[in-house]
Design goal:
InterPro entries: Essential_protein_Yae1_N, LTO1_adapter. This is Oral cancer-overexpressed protein 1. The protein is mostly helical and about 180 residues long. Helix content is about 80%, strand content about 0%. It folds into two domains: about 60 residues, no CATH class; about 90 residues.
Length: about 180
């Protein structure tokens, strides 16, 4: 290594061999290029220069992968939050609708004393009980999907007993045109 550095220094100071002078005549400026590249990365031999060129592709690929991974992770978290907020809003809208529906019908049927009305009141109270006991505060609950399926089934049962349409989306479309 010491000998290479000595040759490198002698070339910088103007000393050169006969082969280097001939090479300089055939390819002017090439020697200066090698010297300037060698100075930049602190290497003396052409082998280290080519290694850095060959390894540049691998280094850039690794840096690009890491940068892409970080950006993808951030984007995924943002998209996940947006998606979760959207689904959470839809779920809370549905649960709120069922609650308001049950309370309203319970108030309407409260004055009636016939057997059908009592059965309807009992089913409405069980719907309200399902709503109040469901873990809608915990979005990671394992029972959330099962509870929502039970709520929807109970809602369909109540609607059947009241002889009204059972599609929740129909109620949302009707309410969308309402202005306060």
């Amino acid at each position: 290594m010491k000998q290479k550095q000595g040759q490198f220094t002698s070339r910088l100071l103007g000393g050169s061999t006969r082969a280097e002078e001939a090479e300089q005549e055939l390819y002017p400026g090439v020697g200066a290029l090698v010297v300037s590249v060698g100075e930049m990365d602190g290497t003396c031999g052409g082998e280290d220069l080519f290694d850095s060129i060959v390894m540049a592709d691998e280094r850039f690929r690794g840096e690009g992968y890491q940068e892409g991974y970080e950006k993808g992770t951030r984007r995924g978290l943002q998209d996940g939050r947006r998606h979760g907020a959207s689904h959470g809003a839809k779920l809370s809208t549905e649960i709120s609708f069922y609650y308001g529906f049950a309370v309203t019908w319970k108030c309407l049927l409260h004055q009636n004393t016939d057997i059908k009305s009592r059965k309807r009141m009992k089913v409405l109270e069980s719907l309200l009980g399902l709503i109040q006991n469901s873990p809608h505060d915990d979005p990671q609950s394992a029972k959330l999907q099962q509870d929502m399926d039970n709520l929807r089934a109970k809602f369909r049962q109540v609607c059947s007993m009241l002889s009204i349409p059972t599609d929740f989306k129909d109620y949302i479309k009707t309410a969308a045109g309402t202005s306060f």
